[in-house]
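Section 5: illustrative case.
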């Protein structure tokens, strides 16, 4: 049994000897037990015992089919060798020789018939490969030199290459190389752009990496503690990391070394912000403190030259944990987001209280101030983004931004546009002046933790729980908001249609079995096609009346212009075109399509049905649609005096045509029965054997077998 399997599945197979039989389960089991009734047959050849006791995650072979490998949820890859036909024949001959020797001793005849190779003899174990972490996927390739090369993708985002020398007496896998520098081993929690728009900083739980934006290559990797926030020091030669343990780490990019570590806060350093004058920065932590720092040059003990350092200047004590801090562009105000769901604004010079922005239901996780200092946007765990004025602290607008928590927010430089990242795996752009959603950047598959905008506003980089960094570039193509809104509304409508409950049909009790189909985009499109066909029929009939009136007035025949759609269908009549469209609707979507159809189209459809049934075309399909329309629009049809004659005509024609179709079917069935008896009498074989007879016979045998087993028990 699989330990990860739910208890309900585990207990499903057990039963007591005296328990009652479930007929449905017996029937399904009976069908599964007799594969000869199926077209595709699959028979068990044998089993190979693995050393691992967990479930198999991946099973694969090399391209030649000579080697088979599999792995479970652990870090071991088991490799097996599949013998060729020649090797199998040699083994079989050896086995037959042994069998002949035994047969001579025991004086037995024809031992060859009882000699067969088992699957474990045809597929032999080669070795086990132990990786450095849990295996997620693998691939095999057999080199011309006779070496088996194995590439393993591990759970910690490492790729390892192993070589297996098959010529050795005891083959042992040797790790040749591994790729580790490419990406992070864990989720990236902070991003930053350099001032020249070229370098991108990303930091995770174990390392800091610097990437070249144009080549997308990692140019520096430095070990660090669990990083939560970061920034480039002015000059882009050093970076500062704020960690979960409350430390500030200063790294030199040229050497890739850690220069200095300071114990900044007693809790996690949640946020860091560079001052606009670039002389220092401010940090906010879980110890309810906001600390101000300045850059300083100090003498290094190991060298004569001075190096950069961080000097603590002053502290602002608060009542709640600090989640985010941001400077205003003129460096007069400092906005601080607290755990009590409010944002406090202080004067930087005196640290006196200025404003309190309250209105979010959950803590504000991110915020930013626009370039001119007039607006501040806050993103919260309550999924809303609020836009405030910094002059009076009034809320201009509250926007429902994401389907989950808003994790990061940043304004585009020199504009009132801003980007947000959410746990719903989406990155969105907004206009803070018009309070409009501009576009959605979809690409991530899981939660987006953070993003960063380049100083020129042309690039956005985002980091997600799906272990990917995505770089977005601003294009020169014009963005039409109306089209974006239409696309978004269509997507929302499709999603709502998929989630919408089944409508109640008149005349049906609630709780009864509903329609076989389901309301989808296909059913709506099918209804729209029927509506368009009926509208074309109306237009063509109106044109035909006008044409007849013109011909009557002129006293001669005037050529009638044919509709290009009807010409494409072979110059058919408008009523025949409606029938063609109707026949193209899938049988499973017919009821749902008619249910969506407005009643204004039903009278024309009933008249056309009367015409079609009189001609005797597709009687079964038309009767099915007719009865369903009468069922769902019974009240409106019976109260409409114009449709009384139509319904009377439909009653006569439908009954006559259905009886004719029934007579034809009965005649055909009698003819087939006669042919069946003739063939059976001639060839002495049974045709069209009833499947239920065989099924009942198998069921009787199975019950008899079960009784024997119970008697033994």
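Designed sequence:
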């Amino acid at each position: 049994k699989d330990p990860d399997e739910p208890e309900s599945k585990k207990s499903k197979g057990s039963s007591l000897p005296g328990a009652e039989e479930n007929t449905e389960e017996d029937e399904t089991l009976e069908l599964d037990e007799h594969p000869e009734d199926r077209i595709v047959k699959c028979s068990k050849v044998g089993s190979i015992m693995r050393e691992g006791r967990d479930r198999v995650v991946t099973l694969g072979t090399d391209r030649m089919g000579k080697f088979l490998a599999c792995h479970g949820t652990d870090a071991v890859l088991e490799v097996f060798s599949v013998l060729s036909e020649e090797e199998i024949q040699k083994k079989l001959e050896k086995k037959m020789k042994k069998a002949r020797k035994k047969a001579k001793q025991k004086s037995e005849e024809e031992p060859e018939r009882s000699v067969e190779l088992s699957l474990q003899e045809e597929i032999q174990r080669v070795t086990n490969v132990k990786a450095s972490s849990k295996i997620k996927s693998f691939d095999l390739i057999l080199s011309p030199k006779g070496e088996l090369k194995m590439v393993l993708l591990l759970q910690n985002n490492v790729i390892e290459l192993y070589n297996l020398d098959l010529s050795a007496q005891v083959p042992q896998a040797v790790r040749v190389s591994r790729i580790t520098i490419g990406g992070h081993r864990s989720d990236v929690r902070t991003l930053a752009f350099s001032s020249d728009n070229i370098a991108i900083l990303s930091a995770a739980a174990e390392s800091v990496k610097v990437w070249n934006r144009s080549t997308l290559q990692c140019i520096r990797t430095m070990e660090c503690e669990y990083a939560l926030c970061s920034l480039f020091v002015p000059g882009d030669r050093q970076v500062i990391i704020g960690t979960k343990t409350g430390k500030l780490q200063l790294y030199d990019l040229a050497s890739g070394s850690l220069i200095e570590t300071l114990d900044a806060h007693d809790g996690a350093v949640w946020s860091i912000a560079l001052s606009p004058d670039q002389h220092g920065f401010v940090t906010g932590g879980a110890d309810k403190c906001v600390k101000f720092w300045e850059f300083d040059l100090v003498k290094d003990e190991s060298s004569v030259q001075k190096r950069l350092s961080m000097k603590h200047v002053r502290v602002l004590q608060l009542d709640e944990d600090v989640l985010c801090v941001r400077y205003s562009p003129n460096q007069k105000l400092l906005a601080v987001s607290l755990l009590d769901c409010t944002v406090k604004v202080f004067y930087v010079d005196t640290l006196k209280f200025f404003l309190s922005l309250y209105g979010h239901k959950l803590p504000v996780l991110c915020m930013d101030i626009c370039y001119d200092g007039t607006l501040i946007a806050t993103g919260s765990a309550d999924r809303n983004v609020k836009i405030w004025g910094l002059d009076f602290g009034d809320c201009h607008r509250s926007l429902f931004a994401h389907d989950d928590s808003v994790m990061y927010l940043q304004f585009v430089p020199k504009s009132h546009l801003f980007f947000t990242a959410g746990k719903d795996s989406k990155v969105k752009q907004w206009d803070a002046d018009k309070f409009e959603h501009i576009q959605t950047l979809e690409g991530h598959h899981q939660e987006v933790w953070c993003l960063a905008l380049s100083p020129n506003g042309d690039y956005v980089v985002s980091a997600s729980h799906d272990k990917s960094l995505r770089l977005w570039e601003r294009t020169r193509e014009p963005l039409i908001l109306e089209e974006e809104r239409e696309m978004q509304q269509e997507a929302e409508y499709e999603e709502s249609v998929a989630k919408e409950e089944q409508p109640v049909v008149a005349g049906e009790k609630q709780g009864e079995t509903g329609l076989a189909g389901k309301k989808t985009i296909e059913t709506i499109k099918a209804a729209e096609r029927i509506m368009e066909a009926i509208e074309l029929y109306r237009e063509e009939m109106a044109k035909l009346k006008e044409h007849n009136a013109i011909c009557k007035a002129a006293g001669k025949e005037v050529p009638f212009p044919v509709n290009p759609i009807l010409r494409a269908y072979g110059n058919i009549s408008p009523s025949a075109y409606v029938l063609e469209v109707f026949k193209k609707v899938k049988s499973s979507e017919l009821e749902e399509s008619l249910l969506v159809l407005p009643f204004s189209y039903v009278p024309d459809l009933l008249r056309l049905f009367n015409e079609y049934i009189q001609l005797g075309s597709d009687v079964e399909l038309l009767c099915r649609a007719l009865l369903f329309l009468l069922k769902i629009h019974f009240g409106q049809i019976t109260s409409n005096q114009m449709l009384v004659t139509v319904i009377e005509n439909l009653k006569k024609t439908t009954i006559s045509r259905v009886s004719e179709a029934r007579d034809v079917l009965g005649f055909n069935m009698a003819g087939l029965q006669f042919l069946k008896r003739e063939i059976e009498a001639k060839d002495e074989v049974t045709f069209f054997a009833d499947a239920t007879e065989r099924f009942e016979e198998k069921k009787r045998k199975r019950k008899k077998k079960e009784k024997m087993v119970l008697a033994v028990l």
